[in-house]
């Protein structure tokens, strides 16, 4: 299923890979994925992110994670995960979890 949602990242190659992964999922509703690379992109990449929003970051700072939560994402992943776990997270966010 082709998703109407977009992947946002400061690294074009990562954005393309993320979009391919997003397009391979059949979510209940489109989910926008922000891949926070380089660190800080989620905060300065765009003024207002489209919803529903899932943010994926590798930044372990509790202060930074608190700032990310101010974006009001439906999902926030701060640990390294593989593609299958990311697909599962996209589906869960699309279902309102």
Spell out the key features of this protein.
97 residues, alpha/beta, 4-stranded parallel sheet, 4 strands, 14% strand, globular
Give the helices and strands, then pairings.
Blueprint: E1 7-9, H1 12-23, E2 32-35, H2 41-44, E3 53-56, H3 62-69, E4 75-77, H4 83-94
Parallel strand pairs: 1-2, 2-3, 3-4
What does this structure look like?
It is a single chain. With 97 residues, the chain is of the alpha/beta class. It has a domain of 62 residues. It contains 4 helices and 4 strands; from the N terminus they run βαβαβαβα. The longest helix is centred in the first third of the chain and has 12 residues. The radius of gyration is 12 Å and the shape is globular. The mean pLDDT is 91.
Name the strands of the widest sheet in spatial order: 1-2-3-4
The helicity comes to 25-40%
Tell me the fraction of residues in β-strands, as a range: 5-15%
Helices and strands, in order, run as: EHEHEHEH
Strand element count:
4
The gross shape turns out to be globular
Q: Main β-sheet: number of strands, strand sense, barrel status?
A: 4 strands, parallel
Radius of gyration: 12 Å
Uncertain stretches of 5 or more adjacent residues: none
User: Which structural class matches the secondary elements?
Assistant: alpha/beta
Could you give the distance between the termini?
21 Å
The overall average pLDDT, rounded, is 91
Helix segment tally? 4
């Amino acid at each position: 299923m082709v998703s109407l949602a977009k992947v946002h990242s400061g690294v074009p190659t990562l954005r393309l890979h993320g979009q391919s992964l997003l397009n391979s999922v059949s979510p209940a509703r489109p989910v926008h994925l922000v891949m926070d690379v380089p660190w800080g992109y989620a905060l300065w990449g765009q003024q207002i992110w489209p919803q529903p929003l899932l943010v994926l970051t590798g930044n372990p700072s509790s202060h930074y994670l608190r700032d990310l939560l101010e974006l009001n994402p439906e999902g926030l992943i701060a640990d390294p995960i593989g593609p299958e776990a990311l697909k599962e997270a996209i589906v869960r966010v699309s279902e309102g979890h």
